[in-house]
Amino acid sequence: MLEERRLDVLRAIVEDFVLSNEPVGSKALAERHQLRVSPATVRNDMSALEEEGYITQPHTSAGRIPTDKGYRLFVDRLSGVKPLSRAERRAIQSFLEGAVDLDDVVRRSVRLLAQLTRQVAVVQYPSLSCSSVRHIEIVTITPARLLLVLITDTGRVEQRVVEIPAPVDDLIVGELRGVLNGALNGRRLVDAPEAVADLPDEARPDLRPYLNTLIAVVMEALVEKPEERIALAGTANLTRSALDFADTLRPLLEALEEQVVLLKLIGEVRDLDTVTVRIGRENNVDALRSTSVVATGYGRGASALGGLGVVGPRRMDYPGTMAAVRAVAKYVGDLLGAD
Amino acid sequence: MLEERRLDVLRAIVEDFVLSNEPVGSKALAERHQLRVSPATVRNDMSALEEEGYITQPHTSAGRIPTDKGYRLFVDRLSGVKPLSRAERRAIQSFLEGAVDLDDVVRRSVRLLAQLTRQVAVVQYPSLSCSSVRHIEIVTITPARLLLVLITDTGRVEQRVVEIPAPVDDLIVGELRGVLNGALNGRRLVDAPEAVADLPDEARPDLRPYLNTLIAVVMEALVEKPEERIALAGTANLTRSALDFADTLRPLLEALEEQVVLLKLIGEVRDLDTVTVRIGRENNVDALRSTSVVATGYGRGASALGGLGVVGPRRMDYPGTMAAVRAVAKYVGDLLGAD
DNA sequence: ACTTGGCACTCGCGGCAACAGAGTGCCAGA
DNA sequence: TCTGGCACTCTGTTGCCGCGAGTGCCAAGT
Question: Nearest CA to A262 among A320, A300, A306, A224?
Fold first, then answer.
């Protein structure tokens, strides 16, 4: 009973603070929520909560605000699930269904997520390493330069210009195309190295030098350093929550433009079926130490194709944001998994 | 002689204000620049300049700052060209040379431009309507669904999933591929409609329904509504110039995320060989009325492939920014034109 | 006809004191 | 264990003052 009410008080503090962005005092708390006790009692509970590190006061004699630890407890134990409205679900579906290709899916998703959560949204393109080869195309640009185009089952297209050792005619190109497709079509990219390992040895001698060159390019581009990509939207929402200008906003914007940082961040939390919340200092990135990240993985089956999520102030509607992230991930996963 | 000095004063005001971001007064002006006259004389000139609308004072008894009209005169008549250093040119070249494909070129360019100018950079992908078809590929996903991939000479890849009326085998697909490539390879996209107009009639009867479907998709995707794309970088630089938070920064960020707005903007100023400057209210976009846009087109030959530029505060180093924009446009044009 | 030095005037801004309001901690009583 | 009361501590606001920068104007000089 006693512990119970303290948690109620914490929940009330978080909810009030998220709405008002102002330190919340005992009097307002006792009035606005049905705690059925007097402000003085609430003060005692707040005192205890502060002792335990769940809340803090920015200045002596101001109200209390939640600490990272307080938000953490709130997210873990105090916040219920907040299902999206039917209208929201329909909006998601209809918005994403109009997408014509992978780029379009990703860009629509990220804008959608930014709009739903009113935060900065991040969507990772499907990882190459989780994809399979759908088709490889070789196009002659000049006799000595080929364009290699690789299409994955998630709809991603990678292309590279290849300088080849000696000129080729279309017949050779056709054979090369056949050999590569035969070996790689339907294979997962991670399995590509062994799939092509013996190709040059088995192939006709006159094809070998070309094959070696092409295989080297494929390996380099798709396996050794598979370029991961990120889409971003909703940075304007950062101006909504009154973060201070130079100290917080600038490094945050810089970090968000640094794809490496975002990829690392997303990579750590792209579990399927679990929406991960990182609050404040739980993020190992300095620029994000005053923000929270809500993210999850998307995809079908066992492993995640990619991750998506939002970045926003710690003072955030966690239940709503988590619901939106989960819902968008589900739709994106279905869309890209089925395609 | 008289007019001459007034212009000198205006130039000095612009240059000082760009550096200091503080209204500049007569005394500081007379001292810091070699005007060879007393502050009182400068005051008279400033009075006249204000009368004519080139400068204004934010409050009675503060220094003067340039108006849009003042910046305009400065850009048109008072600023010399400011060539980039050899080191800068080399940096541009080496940074862009590492690009592996079109996406990479664009993303590197936009980051480079943001870094050079310390402003928000915008780069438009090469317009589809200015490109030619390099190759069309058709891949079977299922017997009833094909993937159509179109590659342009600028390296852009467009793909669409096509539901076809009746299942096809690989032989048919090969023929379709041959017919489409025969008709379109090397053609400019704007010429595509007439190039394919008679295809169904000339083709073997059994191919016609497929051809009709495929051509419809090509037309829809590439000619009727060629999707234009934009890359953006350096938004963190907006926090550098002390724009006020809610009134200016938010609508600006929102406008920058709205591709339509940017495309319209870039579309108006993508002349080759001319760097266009739009100052403050010269931009017809509300959110940009307190910023300046410096932009130009890139490409080889007669018409521009696309546009690029930067958005920044009116208080901007115009000569330096214009030089950087021109230089990057030149390199990008060469890169994409030659590829 | 321009230019120059002098002078009075106008504001914006930083510092300082006073004040009101919100919130807390603590204590005694129910 | 809860509650009401009370003293205390801050913060943010307001009003006031003086400083300094900058202007505009005028009369004198070249």
Answer: A306
Give me the total of CB pairs closer than 8 Å, taking one residue from chain A and one from chain B.
81
The confidence score (pLDDT) of residue A304 equals 85
pTM for the structure as a whole: 0.90
**What amino acid occupies position A212?**
N
Strand locations in chain B (E)? 55-56, 65-66, 120-124, 133-142, 145-152, 157-163, 230-233, 276-279, 291-298, 306-313
For A80-137, how does the pLDDT look when each residue is reduced to its tens digit (9 = 90+)? Answer: 778 889 999 999 999 998 888 888 999 999 999 999 999 999 999 998 888 888 889 8
Footprint of strand C on the protein (CB under 7 A): A 23-28, 39-40, 43, 46-47, 50, 57, 61-64; B 2, 5, 36-38, 40-41, 44, 59-62
- Mutate: best of B157, B173, B224, partner A, most A CBs <10 A: B157
A36-42 LR contacts (CB < 8 Å, sep 24+): A37/A5, A42/A9
DSSP letters, B242-270, are T--IIIIIHHHHHHHH-HHHHHHHHHHT-
Q: Which residues does residue A306 pair with via DSSP β-bridges, in sequence order?
A: A298
